[in-house]
Amino acid sequence: MKDNDIINVFAFLTALGQLDTPLPFDIQSQINNIGKAIELNSSNIRGLDLIAESYPDLDHIYQQEVFKIRGLIGERNKSLPPEPLSNKPTNELTNAAVNVFNSYDSVDTAKKVATSNFITKVLAFITGNANND
Predict the structure, then answer these.
(1) Angle 72-95-43 (CA atoms, 0-180°, nearest 5)?
(2) Which of 1, 18, 35, 61 could bond to 102 as cystine, CB 3.0-4.6 Å?
């Protein structure tokens, strides 16, 4: 995954986990299609922005998450040229995205992912605060 893909997928998963109700059927279907595409090729992460924009509740949280992550990365890179994001979380992030996006209820599945240490671990890698274990 490219840096922007990592940020967008992570922000999207985080935003889904913050919703209070399941997604409308048409939005869930679109996310399921992205999940199937990612299974075939992890670089098939296209359309998350458009899906979020089509559902205001999701879009609001998603945009906040993207902004927050970019801010954290900016703090990491203050006074330095931007470093590429770590590729370490890519497989875990891809697997989580496939599981959440292919679920019949992506909101519920994202909430389950959020309760694990997965979110903290991936965010630490993205922001450059992870231990090299």
Answers:
(1) 75
(2) 35
pTM above 0.85, yes or no: no
Taking alpha carbons only, the member of 93, 99, 87, 85 closest to residue 128 is 85
Q: What is the pLDDT along the chain (133 residues), one digit of tens a residue?
A: 777 888 899 899 999 999 999 999 999 999 999 999 988 887 778 889 999 999 999 999 999 999 988 887 765 555 555 555 555 557 788 888 999 999 999 999 999 887 777 777 777 776 666 654 4
- Residue type, position 108, single letter: D
Contacts of residue 56, defined as CB under 8 A and 6 or more positions apart, other chains included, come to none
Tokens (6 digits) for 60: 């609001």
Q: Are 45 and 1 in contact (CB under 8 A)?
A: yes
Spell out the residues 6+ positions from residue 87 whose beta carbon is closer than 8 angstroms to its own: 1
